[in-house]
Structure of Abscisic acid G-protein coupled receptor-like domain-containing protein:
Amino acid sequence: MKQLFKDYEVRHILVQLIFSITLTLSCTMFELIIFEILGFLDSSSRYFYWYLMLYLLLFVVIVLNPFYIGYYCISNIRYVRPDYIKHLTVLTWLIFLAVFWKIGEPFPIDHPNQGFFSIESLVSRIGVIGVTVMALLSGFGAVNYPYSSMKFFMRDVSETDVLNIEKRLMQTMEMIVLRKKRIVMARKQQLHMKVDSGNKRGIWEMISSVTGNKSDENINQLRLEIDGLEEMSRQLFLEVHENRNMLMRIEWSKTWKGSYFNFIGYIFSGYCLWKIIICTINIVFDRVGKKDPVTRGIEIAVIWMGFDFDINFWSQQISFYLIGCIVVTSIRGLLLTVTKFFNRMSSNKSSNIIVLLLAQIMGMYFVSSVLLLRMNMPVQYRIIITQVLGALQFNFYHRWFDVIFLVSALGSMVTLYLAHKPPVKDNMM
């Protein structure tokens, strides 16, 4: 609460409660995945809790969150009478349900025997949205993390370069002030000439009018020069700001923490390139992995390297730690992204809406995480998850993730290159 709402206080207890319930249900689903691997609780108990948590989370994501998002959006509209808020909220929620149902039509996710309120129909549509969000965030993170942490992507900037740009910025500001002073002086001169021209006649009035027109031309010319100089000052200010940040990054990279993140950046760069290649191969050849990383790694260790060990024991242990790392990093990464987004977008009026929107995204994100995590688990641990989720097209979601990840990663590369392109040196000053 203190970290997320530190700038804009969310006073509505219901909003805080909805966000907390969504996060709790999402984390409980990950906890049930760990229970599947450990064999904790009886199988029938885990099966019951899977259904319970999934139905509760679906209720929050499809009914509770959208309803109150619509309510607070309509409440913030000044021209809506208080008597009409509830009716418009119900209408907005019905429109959301219609759009939510239509989302599934372009995708091969429907089954002839599925009803509107079946788990398969609801989860399949949430999965399309959630997997899209996951792939977009994953693609951007895989590209942005190496760029922001590795020395290789840092421009060589010195304190002298920054001081020179700051000097140019100060000179530009002085030129702007000087021209604005000249405009003020020209206007005063025009005012005096108009007063004097009221007492003159004939040829002197004609000379004064001609002189006044020249003064107008000078003012217009000065305004054009000021516009150009102000644009230049904005560009110089942005360049100073970027170079100052780069200097801070260079100093940070010399610390132990910077060296550690630089090393991790190389690992992420390799992962990003590997993931782009694998996604491209999967899309081109319409391929979906059949075996989880744990099973594949054990097969390589046993068959190709000749190691002899207890396969069942190590399969459980490695699966536990692998899924645990994925769960922790997923929750941490999403909450950090949510915090940054909230602090940038929220205001006193929109804070409730932003919190509910983030709760909505979080619920869809974690439901989709369960769909994709299923592939990272050995077959013996997928049984209950497959039974609970029903006849879903799991292969479709993995292919869809590959497509969106590839688009997001390549788009992030182009965007970061264009956004942080080194400034072109000019000789205007």
